[in-house]
Amino acid sequence: MHCLTAMPVAVGPYGQQQPACIDRIKMGFMMGFAVGMAAGAMFGTFSCLRVGMRGRELMGGVGKTMMQSGGTFGTFMSIGMGIRC
Hints:
Layout: H1 21-50, H2 55-84
Subcellular location: Membrane
Protein name: Reactive oxygen species modulator 1
Keywords: Membrane, Transmembrane, Transmembrane helix
């Protein structure tokens, strides 16, 4: 008779498995990216309208600001989640 021993698995308070560290880092990046995109939409719209952009130029400027702030905030959130692993 063989006795198979499995590696211990981290179990949460209600018996469910905890996500792997790389999954938590990816989830942190996605959450940070979403929050950064929302902040970029607000700040980008305000700053582009303030300098007088309209139409296609406005959309390009707001989109660029959204992507930059989403990427920045997502990076820092993923680093924070990686530290917590």
